[in-house]
Fold:
Amino acid sequence: MRCPKDWDQPCPNPECARFKLMHKGHVSAISTDLTASGKRRIFRCRDCHTTFSETRDTVFFDLRTPEKQVIMALKMLLVRVDLAGISFVLGVTEETVLEWLRRAALKAQEI
Structure:
């Protein structure tokens, strides 16, 4: 008998009996979307039937920019490259870089 693949994703629905539980075989991949950042899996919880994205609750959720570009901007900020330099090199506005930094800071606070 074939065992379901463990996707290492917890159910995000707080009303589900398996909320935030991992490695229980209750989350399955139902589709793959092609985004600017690459392929993204869409998952469904078998218990509550909630669907969710692979990047939900991350800095990269709902961004149209490749992940590598966001990570590069954050690394450049870490080594104290100025906003004007980052925006010039990556071809984005300074406001965009600040938004990525704000998202990263919010996720860091959650952790």
In short: Residues 73 and 79 are 10 Å apart (CA to CA). The beta strands are 27-35, 38-45, 51-53. The chain has a mean pLDDT of 86. The first helix runs from residue 67 to 78.
